What we know:
Number of strands: 15
Mean pLDDT: 86
Number of helices: 3
Order of helices and strands: HEEEEEEEEHEEEEEEEH
Strand content: 25-35%
Number of domains: 1
CATH class: Mainly Beta
Structural class: mainly beta
Oligomer: single chain
CATH topology: Immunoglobulin-like
Shape: globular
Distance between the termini: 18 Å
CATH architecture: Sandwich
Amino acid sequence: MRRSMFLALVMVVGVLGWSGVGLGYENANNIGYFALQVPDPTKMVIDGEDNDWAWYDPAYVITTDQMACTLTGVVPPKDDIDIAIKVGWSAPPDNRLFVFVRVTDDTLNIDETKLDAGWKDDDLEIITDADHSGTFHGPADGGGTRTDMQQWTFHIPTPGGYPKVAYMRYKQIPEMQWAIEEGYVQAAVKVEPEAKHLATNVTIGYEVAMPLWDYYSPDGYDASTRHVNEAGQVLGLSITYNEADSKGRTNQISTHPNEKGAHDADFMSEFTLLAVGEYISPAVESSTWGTIKALLR
């Protein structure tokens, strides 16, 4: 980890130890999250498996206890659902965001057929505000053209049911799907033992690689402004999992604590980009590092 960031976290330990007050309202862990630079983007294979993530420092894996349930305020127990998230990034010329999410779920719900209603099922959302500009980007019903903030969603497709893995929500005009249709957004989902509605005790792997945009135009790539990733940047980025049991959605577990984060960038969580060599767990007293890690839970 970058020395300055580590020292900042040590300071946070002291501040929170005295005041008991967290920093920032957008982040479910009260501090913020980290994305680690991918050492060799050419070795990343988007297939729903994490065997190409062996380089990832496990100290930075985001787990369910570092997230919040925006619907109930109570994160469900691990025997209901358990989530582990890895977030990576690459500098130009590759210049992409990488996300791997592993979900262990006691009951799989995948009976929705409408693209804009995938949130009623078990469903992943990656919400991006790459230039961290904040502000509200849609009307009260959650629609509006997502030119500055995008709600990318990833789902388990089924024969005759939900038709595709990746889709931009919510209430978007068809022209806004170009990054998916033209292959800029790569995504895969793998389910074990089987992708069947109401299957029990399943493990789901979601893997995504995609560019980020400061401005995303319905007129396509040339009319859009691609974000340039750089170490030290802070991105507006939320990762949300909609969990549905047999009677529909029961939980929405996210890195942001307020459901408004799906439509209002001021309520999103934040990720800092760490470069290769900056994210090795520091050689400090184990008790100190344990305290810092506890802040991320």
